[in-house]
Automatic annotation (TrEMBL):
Protein name per its UniProtKB record: Tr-type G domain-containing protein
Gene Ontology terms for molecular function: GTP binding; GTPase activity; translation elongation factor activity
Organism domain of life: Bacteria
One Pfam family linked to the record: GTP_EFTU
PANTHER family: ELONGATION FACTOR TU, MITOCHONDRIAL, ELONGATION FACTOR TU-RELATED
Positions of the Tr-type G domain: 35-142
SUPFAM superfamilies associated with the record: P-loop containing nucleoside triphosphate hydrolases
Organism: Streptomyces xanthii
């Protein structure tokens, strides 16, 4: 979940192929990826209304959600709306992927975006100090799934999702 143009679709497209070398092939490369813990199913929701409708019919089946926030823009009002919708639907587990970190001039900028996102999540009722946060970019992996540079952050994301978080 996340604002438009923050990299959700790029990430969702890159994960299955990039993680295949690390964890094995996905049973369904369209919408699934595999980690050491097992398969994950992705729902790349193209907008807030689609996300809300998916939550309405299956929030109880979600193990958690991944909030994608662009390091260029930070959390936008749309980002907050996604977090609020997830909280209202009872989604307890949330992780954050700060995307497009290769496009900011200094690492500190991405870290500030992370802090701003944690504050926004705290305001929405999530335990911000327990929310796992990854900083990376998926475009290299989307272009070339065998790229070690692009794959590194996605493997870290998969390993983080495999750990219990609240």
């Amino acid at each position: 979940m996340g604002a438009q143009k923050h990299g959700k679709s790029t990430l969702a497209g890159a994960l299955p192929a990039a993680l295949e070398a690390e964890f094995g092939p996905s049973p369904d490369p369209e919408g699934q990826f595999v980690t050491s813990r097992g398969p994950y199913h992705l729902h790349d929701c193209p907008g807030l209304d689609d996300f809300r409708s998916r939550l309405a019919v299956g929030a109880d089946q979600l193990a958690g959600v991944l909030l994608v926030v662009s390091a260029e823009d930070g959390p936008l009002p749309e980002t907050r709306a996604y977090a609020a919708a997830a909280r209202e639907a009872g989604v307890a587990r949330i992780a954050v992927y700060v995307s497009k970190c290769d496009l900011v001039e200094a690492e500190e900028i991405a870290e500030l975006i992370g802090l701003e996102t944690c504050e926004m999540l705290r305001e929405e009722g999530y335990p911000a100090n327990k929310v796992p946060m990854m900083f990376s970019y998926a475009l290299d992996a989307a272009r070339d799934p065998k790229s070690k540079k692009g794959r590194r952050g996605l493997v870290q994301l998969a390993q983080t999702l495999d750990t219990p978080f609240r």
